[in-house]
C-alpha cells in the first residue's frame, strides 16, 4: 500500500533537470499517510527530495510520530533516501522503517538507524535513547 502511494506521488514530481522522479509516502503512528515528490530547481542545491517533502507536509500538519516511509525512485528496483534525508528523518524517527521498490516488484526494507548509524544530534544521549526505543 505504501509503495503504491509513493508511486502515485512520483507521478507528480517535478524533475525537469535530472529526469529522475522520486515519490515518497510517510505513514504516521495514527495511520495517516503523507506523500511527496521531489521538486527540482535550476539552482540544484535548492532541490528538495521527495522524502523531505512528505515529512515537511506531515510536520506542518502537526504530526510527530512516524512508523514507515516508502520510496520509489525512477525505475530503480531500490531507491533508499540520500544522506541529507536520512539525517532529517532521524530528527523525528530514528527507528523509522524504510521501504523501497516498485509496485508489483520486490521490496527492500531497512530501519533508518541501520542506514544512518550515529546520526548527528545536539544531545547525543537523546539520540542513544531514541535508537534504543526509549
Fold and architecture overview:
This protein is of the alpha+beta class. The protein has one domain (2-131): Cytidine Deaminase, domain 2 (3-Layer(aba) Sandwich). It is built from five helices and five strands. It has helices spanning 2-10, 50-60, 83-92, 112-115, 124-131; strands at 22-28, 33-37, 66-73, 97-101, 107-111. A five-stranded mixed β-sheet has the order 2-1-3-4-5. A hairpin with a 5-residue loop joins strand 4 and strand 5 (107-111). It is globular, with a radius of gyration of 14 Å.
Question: What is this structure, in a nutshell?
Answer:
It contains 5 helices and 5 strands, in the order H-E-E-H-E-H-E-E-H-H. It is α+β, with helices and mostly antiparallel strands.
Distance between the termini: 28 Å
Spans where pLDDT lies below 50 across 5 or more residues: none
Largest sheet: 5 strands, mixed
**Helix/strand/pairing class, anyone?**
alpha+beta
**Pattern of helices and strands:** HEEHEHEEHH
CATH architecture level-2 label? 3-Layer(aba) Sandwich
Biggest sheet, strands in spatial order?
Answer: 2-1-3-4-5
Defining key terms:
alpha+beta; 134 residues; 5-stranded mixed β-sheet; Cytidine Deaminase, domain 2
Question: What's the structural blueprint in terms of helices and strands?
Answer:
Blueprint: H1 2-10, E1 22-28, E2 33-37, H2 50-60, E3 66-73, H3 83-92, E4 97-101, E5 107-111, H4 112-115, H5 124-131
Amino acid at each position: 500500500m505504501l509503495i503504491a502511494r509513493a508511486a502515485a506521488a512520483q507521478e507528480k514530481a517535478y524533475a525537469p533537470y535530472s529526469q529522475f522522479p522520486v515519490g515518497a509516502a510517510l505513514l504516521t503512528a495514527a495511520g495517516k499517510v503523507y506523500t511527496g515528490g521531489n521538486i527540482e530547481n535550476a539552482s540544484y542545491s535548492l532541490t528538495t527530495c521527495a522524502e523531505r517533502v512528505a515529512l515537511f507536509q506531515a510536520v506542518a500538519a502537526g504530526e510527530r510520530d512516524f512508523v514507515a516511509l516508502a520510496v520509489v525512485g525512477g525505475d530503480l528496483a531500490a531507491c533508499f533516501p540520500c544522506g541529507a534525508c536520512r539525517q532529517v528523518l532521524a530528527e523525528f524517527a530514528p527507528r523509522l522503517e524504510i521501504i523501497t521498490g516498485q509496485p508489483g516488484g520486490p521490496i527492500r526494507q531497512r530501519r533508518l538507524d541501520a542506514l544512518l548509524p550515529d546520526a548527528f544530534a545536539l544531545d547525543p544521549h537523546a539520540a542513544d535513547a531514541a535508537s534504543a526505543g526509549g
